[in-house]
Write a structure and sequence with these properties.
By secondary structure, the chain is of the alpha/beta class. Helices cover 42% and strands 20% of the residues. The chain folds into two domains: 148 residues, ATPase, nucleotide binding domain (Nucleotidyltransferase, domain 5), CATH 3.30.420.40; 156 residues, Nucleotidyltransferase, domain 5. The strands form three sheets. It has a five-stranded mixed β-sheet, sandwiched between helices. The longest helix is centred in the C-terminal third of the chain and has 27 residues. The site of magnesium ion has 6 residues, from helix 3.
């Protein structure tokens, strides 16, 4: 069985083609170059302009024919409305034209499932950190439940905005990481955890106020240390409470080596296993949508056209997990 999946919840458009053995036949993407924050309408126009060619290129890369596709999957949410709509229209069009079933998938769960596929983690506590999302997710009783999340902005968004407002450039993640490596002195910053949830907006405001008062390297270092410690603390608490033995890191911020090493250290100290997929599968990608499409379809999920409305606020725990026991 072959599934073509389309991702496009934010500024990145991706098309993946995956088999039910978990073989990735194609995983290509195109993202909108932006200097400021994402503008939903402009990102949607970008997606509309490139979707056709990206699908054609994915088919070519996979060395298959349109008729070889068995299922079409698309990211139904959460994400930016205009972007989601372009992706949904493309997926519905393909489904109708090829007369193949369509499955709308949850973007956050797709991150978890591609992470499990690539790393062979079985039942992890997942830390999903990206430009738009920050969640600690674990499977219990037929759902992927959110055990902790951000109360305001996502950690990637916080870092990106810090970098933009301080003139470092966009996207901020890699730039801040590089500068942080040269940082030597920790400057105390607001460390904000409420129950199992985290908050980053106060940290952002504080870090921006320190500009020109401390070396930028030390600010970046302290920003990362503070934000990542918060994430590791909440992840560790979820591991302890749920008695899980694995931790999986996914999402674009997961590329960060410092975050990886902090999580790894926590896992070693707790005696659990730490998993992180290849960079290609950390950030948003089409393959993760195709893979979750396969899992859902094979476990009996069927979507009618009227089930394919986009869900901007699609919650991770809204989906009944039919493909795991
Ligand atoms: P995603 O939303 O999953 O596509 O990932 C994009 C986010 O990952 C953006 O907020 C980037 O700044 C962030 N990112 C990418 N590379 C790094 C890095 N090395 N360290 C921290 N964040 C990163
Ligand atoms: Mg994502």
């Amino acid at each position: 069985m072959i599934c073509l999946g389309i991702e496009g919840t934010a500024q990145k458009l991706g098309v993946g083609i995956v088999t039910d053995d978990g073989e990735i036949l194609a995983n290509i993407s195109k993202h909108q170059e932006i200097r400021e924050g994402i503008h939903p309408r402009d990102a949607a126009i970008h997606h509309a302009e490139h979707i056709k060619n990206l699908i054609l290129k994915a088919i070519e890369t996979a060395k298959i024919d349109f008729n070889d596709i068995d299922v079409i999957a698309f990211s139904q949410g959460p994400g930016l409305g205009p972007c989601l709509r372009v992706v949904a229209v493309a997926a519905r069009t393909l489904s109708l034209k090829l007369n193949k079933p369509i499955v709308g998938v949850n973007h956050c769960i797709a991150h978890v499932e591609i992470g499990r596929l690539r790393t062979k983690a079985e039942d992890p506590v997942t830390l999903y950190v990206s430009g738009g999302n920050t969640q600690v997710i674990a499977y219990t009783d037929k759902r992927y439940r959110v055990f902790g999340e951000t109360l305001d902005i996502a950690v990637g968004n916080m870092i990106d905005q810090f970098a933009r407002d301080s003139g470092l450039g966009n996207p901020g993640g890699p730039i801040v990481e590089k500068l942080a490596m040269k940082g030597k002195k920790y400057i105390p910053m607001p460390y904000s955890i409420k129950g199992m949830d985290v908050s980053f907006s106060g940290l952002l405001t504080h870090a921006l106020k320190l500009l020109n008062k401390y070396p930028i390297e030390d600010i970046c270092f302290s920003l990362q240390e503070t934000a990542f410690s918060m994430l590791v603390e909440v992840t560790e608490r979820a591991v302890a409470q749920l008695n899980k033995e694995e931790v999986l890191l996914v999402g674009g911020v997961g590329v960060n080596k410092r975050l990886q090493s902090m999580l790894k250290k926590m896992c070693i100290e707790r005696g659990c296993k730490f998993y992180v997929p290849e960079n290609e599968f950390l950030g948003d990608n089409g393959a993760m949508i195709a893979w979750l499409g396969i899992l859902m379809y094979k476990s009996g999920v069927r979507h009618k056209l009227e089930d394919t409305y986009i869900k901007q606020k699609f919650r991770t725990d809204e989906v009944e997990v039919t493909w795991r026991y």
